[in-house]
Amino acid sequence: MTTPVAVVTGASSGIGAATARKLAEAGYRVVLAARRAERIGALAEELKRAGHEAEPAVLDVTDRAAVDAFAAGLDRCDVLVNNAGGALGLDPVASGDPEEWRRMYDVNVLGVLHMTQALLPALIASGAGTVLVVSSTAGHGTYEGGAGYVAAKHGAHVLAETLRQEIVGNPVRVIEIAPGMVKTEEFSLVRFRGDKERADKVYEGVERPLTAEDVAETITWAVTRPPHVNVDLLVLRPREQASNTKVHRGPVPGAADR
Length: 258
Prior knowledge:
Elements: E1 5-9, H1 14-25, E2 29-34, H2 37-49, E3 54-58, H3 64-72, E4 79-82, H4 98-125, E5 129-134, H5 147-166, E6 172-179, H6 187-191, H7 196-201, H8 212-223, E7 233-236
Parallel strand pairs: 1-2, 1-4, 2-3, 4-5, 5-6, 6-7
């Protein structure tokens, strides 16, 4: 039996790297797509040492020519995890940097579009394909200072929702996973241009924000449902986050750690 292939974008760190590990454990040959060659190379070697199949692919999802060349080089694709994305800044609409908005749209929306268009024929040919979009709770609710990122993630949400309607009747399902507060090593640090103190404040007082592994386990669960089962949208938050603007900071009385 041929090993199914899962392509994971943004696989060099955080949710992408964790997802690649989980999918490899689940029996997929994982293709690690990201810009940082050293990181995805090291992850591929780690997975191979553990007895899994993995290969790195240096790729910028905003470069359509590169995406098309990447797709042409694949022998098959059963799962596409559109994870590459990110936020820049926390500025109000009145003073937000249009260039940062453009960059967020490029990676969070057009990157998903490029990868999905390029790999959809292979996903259909697989007979049981999955397009998975890692969006965000930001795509489902606004918050002050977040308009650029919210707009981009809303675009990713709408892309997934529309694609699901357009390809119904084909052997491909479209899954959206929308995580809330996830503490990774880079997301907030990139958002605040390397300001670690400001990045750390995002999670300050929250006993247990989500981890990359939490999201990766959820993605893997959704992907490994029987092919006729489609998880249209799954919103994932830590217990202490009721919404994008309501977060409990401090001890949780009587909480059990299990």
